[in-house]
Specification:
The chain is α+β, with helices and mostly antiparallel strands. It contains twelve helices and eight strands. A hairpin with a 2-residue loop joins β6 (126-132) and β7 (135-136). The longest helix is centred in the C-terminal third of the chain and has 76 residues, at 228-303.
Amino acid sequence: MSSQELSAAEECKRAAQILNVFVNSQMGGSIPPHFVVQAFGIAILKAATGVAVVRLPSGEWSAPCAIALHNPNGSINDQETVLLFMTERSVVSLIQNVAFTLGGTHRFEPGPISSSMVPIDSSVDVYVWVRFNGGYTHPELLSRGMAGWYVGEDRTRHRRWHGPEVTWYDVLTNQISVDRSSIGNAFYITLRLAVGSARPENGKKNFATIEGLKPSSVSKSAGTAGNPQLQQQQQQQQTQAELMQYQQKLLEQQQQVATVLAEQAMQEQQQLALAQQQQIAQLQQMQAMQQAQLANTLAAQRGGVASPTMLQAQSPALMQQQLLQQQQQQAYLLQQQQLQQQQLTPEQMMLLQQQQQQLYQQQLYQQQQGYGRF
């Protein structure tokens, strides 16, 4: 049976079972009693729907209201969630049924799951605990995943529980009389057991002052239709969610572009290094040929007989000069190759390629001029 078909008593019974797991240390519960005793209100949800109550000035809890949790980025899985409203402003927003966005209008933090001695941060409006598939969701995942979610009245279920004339404000401020035995005492017993022997800190309130508090126009509405204020709030929440999605997509696109540019730069560096290696190999080959020609020329001069190689060779002085130039060119290319291994800007890479191309063309020209004289 879905939550839309459960009665208030049935949902309170389910909420009691869920809350018992979160607070009972023998069952792996992690919500510390001193958090519960200082809470101004509490909501227990299964998936996206659940029950909410606030603490009254008498210390008792209010009648239950039908609450809903909304994920603007998609649906909510079959998780179990407990929200502790820790500030007066958070409960006032809840009572007046105004915009309530986690990480937006109100600050939220994941509740502690490993230690019961964690102090309460007075600047946190809502502490959140989530269980899924029998285990607690990691706090870091909650911080990222639930930011932008918002809570509010489930009007359809609320009207089925309390009738069309009773508002959310009426229930949470105890303006109506509710027979708690009819909705299940187990829920309120579990709330008392969750406190244990803990007592409120001296001088710290744990209930909202509701005298003089007026219901907002949102609480008196039967829904969003014909209510410009609520429609505007929902539009703002949707816009914020869309903006977050756009920023996330933009960041992913920027990361993809950066990856592509880095790969292109690496490919260009590899291609340039390969071209330099080929040029060096050609220079080394030409150097070897010139050294052989010089050796033949010197040998022929010492023997007094001109060899066929000598007829094709240049003068020793000219060949030595050309050989020195080739060595200088080779050293320059090696130096440029070492520089290329460093990170260069695209403009520096282009200038380096132009210099190497000019050097290569100059080398070919000298070769042609030198050999053309013989």
